[in-house]
Design goal:
220 residues, alpha+beta, 2 domains, 5 helices, 4 strands, 35% helix
C-alpha cells in the first residue's frame, strides 16, 4: 500500500504543456521500485527544496484522470486508468516555482519515478558544490503546469463555493481573513465528501470542489 506524502496535492490535468509523446515512442519501465518507494523519494526531495515560507502542501502532482477517479481524501484510486501516462509535478521551492512534466514511460508511476530521481540528481549538483545558487533548476521554472481551474476568479470565489457545497445551501461565506485555517480545512473535507460521486455527488461538482481546494490551499 502506497503512503502518499502530506506535502503533496494530487489533481487532474487540464491540458498538457506541449505535445504528448506518441504511444509508440514511450519506453518500457526501467525501474523495479514500487510506488511507495517512489513516494518516499519524492517526499524527501520535496522537503529538501521546499520554500519554508509557503504552506506545507506546496507541491502538486497532476495526473490525467477524471475527477471521479479520485478518492474522498483526494488521492487517486488504485484501479484508476488515466487517459495517458504523462504526469506534471510542480513545487514552490526556494529556487522559485518549478514544474516537471514527464510522459517518457508507459505508466504514470514510472514517469513519477523518473521525476523523483531527476530531483534527487539535481540536488546532488548542489551537494557536490558544482553550483551555489540553484542554477540547475532554472530551466524548469518556465514550464507551466496547468490544473483544472474550475472557473474561480479569486480565493473568495473558491471559498464561497466550498462553503455552499459543504452547507448544502446558498449563503454568504465569512471573509477569508477572519476564518481559521482549521475551519477552512474542515469545510474542504466536508465539501469533498458531499460532492464525491460515491456519496451522492457528481463528477462536475467534485471537480470544482477540488479546484477550489487547490486555490485555498495554495500560496496566497
Amino acid at each position: 500500500m502506497s503512503l502518499w506524502p502530506t506535502t503533496l496535492q494530487v489533481a487532474p490535468i487540464r491540458e498538457w504543456p506541449g505535445t504528448l509523446t506518441a504511444a509508440g515512442d514511450r519506453r518500457a519501465s526501467p525501474f523495479s521500485s514500487t510506488l511507495t518507494t517512489t513516494l518516499k523519494t519524492l517526499n524527501r526531495e520535496i522537503l529538501a527544496i521546499v520554500d519554508t515560507a509557503t504552506q506545507q502542501r506546496s507541491a502538486q502532482l497532476l495526473i490525467a484522470l477524471p475527477p471521479g477517479a479520485f478518492r474522498l481524501d483526494g488521492r487517486p484510486r488504485a484501479d484508476a486508468r488515466p487517459e495517458h501516462p504523462g504526469v506534471i509535478f510542480s513545487i514552490d521551492s526556494r529556487h522559485g516555482h518549478l514544474s516537471y512534466p514527464c510522459d517518457t514511460f508507459t505508466t504514470w508511476q514510472d514517469n513519477l519515478r523518473a521525476i523523483a530521481l531527476a530531483l534527487e540528481a539535481l540536488r546532488k549538483v548542489d551537494r557536490y558544490g558544482v553550483t551555489k545558487r540553484g542554477e540547475q533548476y532554472r530551466g524548469f521554472a518556465a514550464i507551466e503546469a496547468t490544473a483544472m481551474s474550475g472557473g474561480f476568479s479569486d480565493r473568495y470565489a473558491a471559498w464561497q463555493f466550498i462553503m455552499t457545497t459543504a452547507r448544502g445551501e446558498d449563503g454568504t461565506a465569512a471573509p477569508l481573513d477572519t476564518v481559521d485555517a482549521a475551519v477552512i480545512a474542515y469545510a474542504i473535507r466536508t465539501a469533498k465528501r458531499k460532492a464525491h460521486p460515491d456519496t451522492g455527488g457528481d463528477a462536475t461538482t467534485f471537480h470544482r470542489v477540488t479546484a477550489a481546494a487547490q486555490i485555498l490551499e495554495g500560496p496566497r
